[in-house]
Design a protein that fits this description.
Order of helices and strands: H
Low-confidence stretches: none
Length: 23
Amino acid sequence: KSAVEKRLFVLKNQGHIHTAGST
């Protein structure tokens, strides 16, 4: 995987965690 893909994957995961925490 490229660095960009990895970064997007991390950001996506952080977004899910943030959403779950807000619920």
